[in-house]
Amino acid sequence: MRIHLAVALLLPLSFSTAQAQTASDHIALGDRAYTAMDAPAALDHYEQAVTADPQRYDALWKASRSAVDAGSYGTDATRRNALFARAEQYARRAIALNSTHAEGHFSLARALGKTALTQSPRGRVKYATEIRRHALGCLGLMPAHAGCLHVMGMWNAEVMRLNSLTRMVAKNILGGRVFSTTKWKEAVRYMEAAVASEPERIVHRLDLAEVYDDVGEKAKARAEFETVLRLPATDANDSVYKDQARAALRAR
After folding, report:
1. Most buried among 87, 137, 237, 250, by the most CB within 10 A?
2. CA-CA distance, 154 to 111, in Å (whole number)?
3. Does residue 17 contact residue 23 with C-beta atoms inside 8 Å?
4. What domains sit in the chain, N to C, each tagged with a CATH number?
5. What's the rounded Cα separation, in Å, for the pair 245 and 213?
6. What is the C-alpha to C-alpha distance for residues 59 and 48, in angstroms, rounded to an integer?
7. Whole-prediction pTM
8. In this structure, are residues 90 and 63 in contact, taking their beta carbons and an 8 Å threshold?
């Protein structure tokens, strides 16, 4: 009887302690899940942090980051698009709170870039200007920001991967005039800079390898694909990137 009474007295305390978790508590738990490469768990904690304190800039941009991570390689297109939309909303809220910090601009450029890749070539045009603006804004605040260097590299690459007619129509008819600034050498330059800034990050190496392939630098591409396979996984989607590198090497 005494044991049951003691348990009954402790239960309200346990409940109130759980309920009293702060935004900082949830951010710490989210960071732990992010390091463990558990994107859904990280997103859940960052969103709880945002609920606890809607003015927490770090909770907002980290929620955006993990929403993109969670949505990037899902097979359910509806869920994926919803996660990218959430990522965009969190990033916009982060920028509204602090437009002078690089991570909000990076998060928005990344979220919009992921959404753009799900669109038709015509649909991508409406995203192009804003993606570029926020990526360059990020680099204006932090010139060595690897993520924003990556976004600019892939921005150039994805535009150059469109056929020439589509690029012409986008530039002259659909209003995508920033498309005229794209060059393969810029894609290479930005991606090489991203790798130089974060040499251990697998996604930089993978996308640089694919850009090298695009420009005919086959030996350099192979070297980067092989590096992807040697590097330890540290991000949520690194196992997918390793599979892509493995497939690219088999196809050579």
Report:
1. 87
2. 13
3. no
4. 23-118 (1.25.40.10), 142-232 (1.25.40)
5. 12
6. 9
7. 0.89
8. yes
